[in-house]
Amino acid sequence: MNYRGPFRVRAEQRPMPEILHPEDAIVRVTRTCICGSDLHLYHGMVPDTRVGSVFGHEFTGVIVETGPLVTNVKIGDQVLVPFNIACGKCNFCKQGLYGNCHESNAMATAVGSIFGYSHTAGGFDGGQAEYVRVPYANVGPTVIPADMDPDDAVLLTDVVPTGYQAAEMGGIKEGDTVVVFGAGPIGIMAARCAWFFGPSRVIIIDHIDYRLEFAKNYAKCEAYNFKSMDDPVVFIKSITDWYGADVCIDCVGCEAEGNALQTFTGKVTLMQAGSATAFQWAVNSVKKGGIVSVVGVYGPPFNFAPIGNILNKGITLRANQASVKRLLPKLIDHVQSGRLNPKGLITHRVPLQEVSDAYHIFSSKLDECIKTVLIP
Amino acid sequence: MKTENTNIDYRQIPGWGMDIDPDNEPTYPMKNYTGDDHNRLNYERSPQQPVEIELLKSIERPVNPVVFGTTVPPSGLSGIIRRYAFKHSEDRYRHWISLILADRINAWEGIIEDLGKGVFPNILAERGIKAELKYNAGGLAKKVVVAAVVGTLLITYLAKKKK
User: Fold this and answer.
1) What's the DSSP call for residue A144?
2) SS3 label, residue B107
3) Does B65 contact A102 at a Cβ distance shorter than 8 Å?
């Protein structure tokens, strides 16, 4: 795929990627997804998204070439590739913060590096292509277990780890009430994964009925449409004995709807780095001393956020890009044991050639789309 | 700016370290705290990827990372603006707002680039018109009608004003 400007992408032949570092590998892509966060790029919300870039940070494939220092994978291996590009040697990687690697992004220190996610996230081409360069091939690419469905494998590159980490960062205790904002693929997965930590209630909030219905069935949670309520914060207080949720999780990020001021300043005029409505609701809906977990993507400059309430309520705020490599062993086990069914999220399979239509379907939420897989 | 001399034995400060609680670690289990943070940027690095393109680097780091993306180096007017942006830190609005401005200009440069190659970009196809027609024909028709009505009213108003 080739990004041509906001709301414009197309399929196009490009030169084969090359080994540029002795620890690189070249992967022939077999499956690649469009992530909800790709839509922030597609909508022109992420600074330094250059025309000609290839998006795509969720992909699986086959190793077709390796650099001289690659020892952990070999040509012919079927691999899933975590969306983080991580060296494995810096002090952040060594402590499990693979999403915060210091040795892969020249352009920004505020974010690690992500395949196909603008120059702000490193300027690497992504996996929505036939072939892709994968740096640090000894660290990221993980051989797909022989008995694993390839559709499950591709969702282990981002959706499952991000949803799981969203719940994990919530510090959920047995009996807790957890509210997830956003019923996109990540929100649905966060709601599903929240149950691993023993809450008594999981609630998901969105404004799109078909997604709420899907979430209710897939994640076995309560689902409410904020457009059918006067004030989501008051609603959540009212259903938690006027106490507030124990844990709130923001799985929406910078394109949230539901607050006219946030929408105007964040999405229409870009006076802030996207609309922070979901974050605001999370802070205001959680109990005093509660935990807010953020995995929704926001841009780097700044947002209007209720910091005073975070202070005065004693809220613990936890956030990060998912550390895919850290979580993979546990999540592969959850999938192989049948406890998690990632491929159940997939609603659309589209040839890579039709990438323009695939983006439009996902962006405009046409045809009850939840998750799109592109097949090169 | 000159920094202060920090060469003091902080362990001699009364009470230093007496309330350390290893369990008070809000980043767990995200972070497997090892204390390596105090070694800062002193760790074994892999060999450096050769720099064969123009690479813009954040001024908040002293050297290039070991690997970096080589896609779409800065060029044209948008490139000039991006080079300006990277003279400022990630803390400055002039960094990010310049990059957003560069992105918008870059979209027009992309069209000019296409035309220069003799390719007329099919913008409707790039925006997914085929999917819109297939799944949202009614919505598309509504948008067209609204646009036509608004356009007609605007033209009529402007024509009247001219008279």
Assistant:
1) P
2) helix
3) yes
What H or E segment, with its residue span, contains residue A356? helix A355-363
Cβ contacts of A237 within 8 Å, gap of 6 or more: A243, A244, A285
Cα–Cα distance between B64 and B79 in angstroms, integer? Answer: 19
> Cβ distance B129 to A366 under 8 Å?
no
Distance CA B70, CA A125 (A): 8
| Residue A195 near residue A222 (C-beta atoms within 8 A) | no
Min distance A145 CA to chain B CA atoms (Å): 25
Cβ-based contacts of B132 with chain A (< 8 Å): 360, 364, 366
* SS3 labels along A195-211: HHHCCCEEEEEECCHHH
pLDDT digits (tens, 9 = 90+) for A63-99: 999 999 999 999 999 999 999 999 999 999 999 999 9
Query: Which residues of chain B make contact with A85, given a CB cutoff of 8 A?
Result: 67
Instruction: Please tell me the distance from the alpha carbon of residue A343 to that of residue A233, in angstroms, as a whole number.
Output: 33
Strand (E) or helix (H) holding A246: strand A245-250
- Cα A39 to Cα A252, A254, A263, A358, B98: the distances in Å are 12, 10, 16, 11, 21
Residues of chain A numbered 269-308 and touching chain B (CB < 8 Å): 270, 273, 299-302
Q: Let me know if B17 is exposed, middle or buried by CB neighbors in 10 A (0-12, 13-18, 19+).
A: exposed
Output the pTM of the full model: 0.95
The answer to whether A156 touches A343, Cβ cutoff 8 Å, is: no
pLDDT digits (tens, 9 = 90+) for B75-104: 999 999 999 999 999 999 999 999 999 999
Q: How much is the average pLDDT of A157-179?
A: 97
Q: Which residue out of A13, A48, A295 would a mutagenesis test of the B interface target, given it has the greatest number of B Cβ atoms within 10 Å? A: A48
SS3 A186: helix
Cα separation, A160 vs A153, in Å, equals 10
Question: 3-state DSSP helix/strand/coil percent for chain B, to nearest 5?
Answer: 50, 0, 50
